[in-house]
Fold each of these.
Amino acid sequence: MFGMIPEKAFERLLGLDECWEVGGAEYETTPVERFLLVIHETARLWPKLRCPVSTCAHPEVVCHDHTEVRVWRHLDAFGKRTEILCSPPRGRCGACRHVWRVPVPWEGEGKHFTRDFEAFALTLMREMPMKKAGDILGESDTRLWRLLFKHVPKAHAALDLSGLVHLGVDEMNCRKGHNYLTVFADLVARRVVFATGGKDHTTFTRFAGELLKHNGHPKAITAVAMDLSHAYQKGAREELGNAQIVFAPFHVTALVGGAMDEVRRREAASSPGLRAILKHTLHALRKNPENLTERQEERLEDLDLKHLATGQAYLVRLELRDIYQHTVKPERARHRLENWIGWVRGKCDRFGEALAPLARVADTIEKHLEGILAHWTSGWLSTGYLEGLNSVFSAVKRKARGYRSRDYMIAMLYFVAGKLSIPSLAARQRTGVLERRDGCV
Ligand SMILES: [Zn+2]
């Protein structure tokens, strides 16, 4: 039955104008089942071309020769794999003799796919892991990655960062234990704008260089939210001279949460009796009271919070959380945080070595107090997007499974979280209709 589908039907399907025609449409079963469409240019192509040399632009163009045969995968037609076969012609200028390959209307960014197929593949790749998109499309993930590496840098190069004022910075661990990326995000536009290898202060130098390439300026950044690492502070001070450093609340509370876990671990290890008492309490202690299950609530009630070092650390954690939740004015926040530090130190004196991890965190918080208070003084700086980046990182890692090297991760990160434009299938088809209006089909 496929032999009955006329070539003209494929020309309409591809949106070809009168300059190109399907010379043959064959249905093959070996080596793979597919429609093979042989396309060549018509005599109407040449009068429509001009010499591409800008100083010449002469309208007299003739056919010079044809380049070697190439194959492009197109969207499936009639439910079957469809490929285009063509030897693209080369034109020659009648005036300056310049010779060039005439672009064919269906070609995409990469070598192997048509533009429509690329748009479809990119849409799938954004929705699912690479391997799964490859299975659905019947393409190897190597080819799909190659498409991504063509598409992403081009879309990223067009990024305009002139409005970037509130920056968020965080590290992403690509593989267990090594291979870090530092990720820079626009907290207002809520998107990742840059990522680079490493987590030292030079990552900020590379970011500042990138800003200048995208119409932005390091001095335009008024606030930068990040964790308490020395390297990031050094980078921000050196490269973003006007930026107020803001330590994001979730990084500060995470420090105290980590210290609490450490106190619990040490206390449980100190005697078999305490180990039994603290068994199965980790998740309850990490949760906030309103989220506890009934069972977890009972477990915490059974704990003698006042006399356990772990209990003290838990109360300290809840108090810090309360400061973040219920303090509005910066002066009040300063007062409460200073009280909190003194309160923690009093407990540490009483409990001694058992609360040592907490004593260290209190020192850290005192040392970074201005940056922590900047959460209140920097106005409405929202760090919500920064906090959400962790789930973005997990999604990126899932999608790039099997390809965890730096370049792959950066490409996938920009693709997933960069809000880059994807060539649109619909727009392409509309163009096809318009092109056909003055065609001869
Ligand atoms: Zn010319």
Amino acid sequence: MSPIFSDTTFDFVSNSVEQTRRLGARLGALLTSGHVICLSGGLGAGKTQMAAGIAGGWDALEPVSSPTFVLVHEHTRAADAMRLYHIDCYRIGGPEELGTLGWEDMLDANAALVIEWPERIDAALPAGHLWITFSGVEDESFTRRRLLFEAAGDPHNALLSEFRRRAFGSMPE
Ligand SMILES: Nc1ncnc2c1ncn2[C@@H]1O[C@H](COP(=O)(O)OP(=O)(O)OP(=O)(O)O)[C@@H](O)[C@H]1O
Ligand SMILES: [Mg+2]
């Protein structure tokens, strides 16, 4: 018998910002240490909305600080010592600037990472990750977004399978 969820990619259209946040929350609830979620797409595509959903589903307490011009948000939660780092690479020139942000420590920590504009730091990204590409869908209300999920490496394949099962139930192949 072949596994039901062997796919490493998955495609979905979100119809609203609420739906994107709910999906993020579903994903956030599944995150464990070492998971890396890359959120790719243009300005206003919905990356930060999904990141907020992920943090909520993960059970983050309020961010320690939330000035606008911050590249890394460190989230904590009451349940355990795990951390969730939300990194926005839009203003990062390239991987060489990551050192000053404590990149190596984030990778070594008991933490999961959510990265906006991951293509800016392509060369530094861990090989294992879940990549989500946001793109626009032609519609009159401008509230639809196509989300393409692509998993690389075993833990992230399993993460995507479980996410898909929980968010959408089992679907016939
Ligand atoms: N289906 C949808 N999913 C997500 N956001 C949506 C959706 N429909 C409308 N929106 C709106 O699009 C905007 C997305 O903003 P957001 O900050 O998440 O974008 P972003 O991808 O993080 O952009 P940036 O690259 O500037 O950081 C919000 O204003 C949100 O309300
Ligand atoms: Mg953003």
